[in-house]
Amino acid sequence: MKEHNSVSTESPEMMSQKGYLLAKESCQFNEGIALCEKAISLNPHHPEPYLNLGRIYVLANKRERAIKAFKLGLRVRKDQRIFHELKRLGVRKPPVLSSLPREHMLNVIAGKMLKSLKLR
Known about the structure:
By secondary structure, the chain is mostly helical. Helix content is 68%, strand content 0%.
């Protein structure tokens, strides 16, 4: 009986999950990244491989790459799990008025106003 390569028969989502587990449980970051990137190439319209890729980058202490992967995933679909990961990393939206400090009263008021209007 011929054995099948499990990676070739797995869905892209399962492939990315396997990559994340390899990185998390065995610190095999390069292998996990490769599996997630392959999953993304097979199905770039699903957010889960981006989520798992970002999580691997977090485990590997590559914060900027993690943020980039998460943001790419959000372009595919607004997934609450990705928002949660970005929040855990402390990523915030830029201030409304970039010429003023984030804490400036005009930025605070404009941000709250835009959020209440669901424009931000």
